[in-house]
Write a structure and sequence with these properties.
CATH topology of the largest domain: BirA Bifunctional Protein, domain 2
Helix content: 10-25%
Radius of gyration: 18 Å
Number of helices: 5
Distance between the termini: 52 Å
CATH architecture of the largest domain: 2-Layer Sandwich
Strand content: 25-35%
Order of helices and strands: HEHEEEEHEEEEHHEEEEE
Largest sheet: 7 strands, mixed
Number of strands: 14
Shape: globular
Structural class: alpha+beta
């Protein structure tokens, strides 16, 4: 079994190669149980946030997607406006999974869902709603054994570059297994509480772990406009709260965030 540790925790469909693990889960979603997972070390046509292409050479990365159907303890659907916490939980869980294979813990979470090591991206998260609107697919792409000359961008890194030891199969299984455990620890109480991030303790954990909080940032919004501000909080729906130079505060639901240095 290619993912022995992960498969002992949740139903994992291992694919030798696929275009997109998110698409694979979306296709299997009708009638499927929550926490169905599709994983591969060769994804040929993945995508990132805002429609970007996610390109990776074969057998050097982990692509994994999980099916979620957020319901509270009574089986009532979690309000959609609270689903913004899902990619944040996935990112925090992945930061812990990445730390589990590094010589020393150094992974950080950048709002809304990137995992960084020393400000270089090692993992991205993409959440997509089911066409039926009753669930969400969360995909993660992790750079495992990429060499410096194979990195997709100058601001990327891989677990091997950062000192992780092991072949691609061992690293993929270790990361996926820990991601499942850590994601479950965050997601299950959150869903049971009806998406109440405060009551479930999710908000406090993410605010404490998000490296964007307390830093100056540049945010490129979906319409192409840009703002520079200090990231100061995350609101009850998972939006980033920034403080502008005039002292006013604004919540950002989506956008590309770049960490800046204080001038």
């Amino acid at each position: 079994m290619p993912f022995p540790r992960a498969s002992a925790l949740a139903p994992v469909i291992d694919l030798e190669s696929t275009v997109s693990t998110n698409d694979e889960v979306l296709a299997r979603a009708p009638g499927a149980d929550e926490f169905l997972i599709v994983a591969t070390t060769t994804q040929t046509g993945g995508r990132g946030r805002l429609g970007r292409e996610w390109v990776a050479p074969p057998r050097q990365t982990l692509a994994a997607s999980v099916l979620l159907r957020p319901r509270d303890s009574a089986g009532v659907a979690v309000p959609f406006d609270r689903w913004g916490w899902v990619p944040l939980m996935a990112g925090l869980a992945m930061s812990r999974a990445v730390d589990g294979v590094l010589p020393s813990p150094r992974a950080t979470l950048k709002w809304p869902n990137d995992v960084l090591i020393a400000e270089r991206k090692v993992c991205g998260i993409l959440a997509e709603m089911l066409p039926t609107g009753d669930g969400v697919v969360v995909g993660a792409g992790v750079n495992l054994t990429l060499a410096p000359d194979a990195l997709p961008t100058p601001t990327s890194t891989s677990l091997a570059i950062e000192g992780a030891v092991g072949d691609v199969d061992a690293l993929a299984d270790a990361v996926l297994a820990t991601w499942i455990i850590e994601f479950s620890r965050l997601y299950l109480p959150f869903a049971a509480a009806g998406g109440d991030a405060r009551a479930s303790g999710v908000r406090s954990r993410i605010v404490a772990s998000c490296d964007s909080i307390g830093r100056p940032v540049r945010v490129v919004l979906p319409d192409g406009s840009e703002l520079r501000a200090d990231a100061v909080d995350i609101d009850d729906t998972g939006r980033l709260v920034v403080e502008l130079s005039n002292g006013s505060r604004q919540s950002v639901a989506a956008g590309d965030v770049t960490h800046l240095r204080y001038e």
